[in-house]
Design brief:
With 202 residues, the chain is α/β, with parallel strands linked by helices. The protein contains nine helices and seven strands.
Length: 202
């Protein structure tokens, strides 16, 4: 059965967001949500996946529901928690998105990084890909998004994105039920942050 019109429209504006969700990356994680919302786009993430479901199947389904995907490969350091290892989730999910696009030609995927040229070493298979460098800053993320999404009808400025970002930061305690935030981003916090930004950007 072909997808309904409202479903196709929702997928048209959805962006699969493949980024770190740890405390050190929090400012940039929030910048991605604020920036995409300013464009009228809907951030989607693996944080939406219920833990009771088979994760890989749901990731593939989530990627397939999005017209775009952004993959931030900045987190190449080893996780300090035992056992000490690097995390391969982000390059793996990039590979899934590339494969989906190669087969179905339905998704545009983009790669971001903190440091210039580092991805040429960490993932040399994508040499020739235009990697957006944000320098590890909020405004750098906004500049990368402006470079990726050039739209006729809704092209927000970096200043507009930053205003939404500041509103989101001010509302974080309320969005997280007043509790202090430590560790990985919980699923409810992601959905509340997204709703806050979309309400502000509307």
């Amino acid at each position: 059965m072909p997808p309904r019109k409202d479903q196709r429209r929702r997928e048209r504006f959805s962006v699969f967001l493949n980024i770190p969700y740890d405390t050190e990356f929090e400012n940039l994680y929030l910048a991605y949500i604020a920036g995409l919302s300013a464009f009228g786009l809907v951030p989607r993430a693996t944080l939406e996946i219920p833990t009771s479901q088979r994760r890989l199947d749901r990731i593939l389904s989530l990627i397939d529901q999005c017209s775009y995907s952004i993959h931030d490969l900045s987190r190449v350091q080893r996780d300090r928690k035992a056992p000490v290892t690097p995390r391969f989730n982000m390059p793996f999910e990039l590979g899934l998105a590339v494969a989906q696009d190669s087969i179905h030609r339905r998704q545009r995927w983009y790669v971001c990084e903190t440091l210039r040229h580092r991805v040429n070493k960490s993932l040399s298979d994508i040499d020739g890909t235009d990697v957006r460098i944000h320098g590890g800053t909020v405004r750098g993320v906004f500049a990368a998004l402006c470079d990726v999404f050039v739209r006729k009808h809704r092209q927000p400025s970096a200043q507009r994105m930053y205003r939404i970002y500041l509103v989101l930061r001010r509302n974080l305690p309320e969005n997280h039920e007043g509790r202090g935030y430590k560790g990985p981003v919980p699923r409810t916090r992601f959905s509340r942050s997204r709703s806050c930004c979309q309400n502000r950007a509307a």
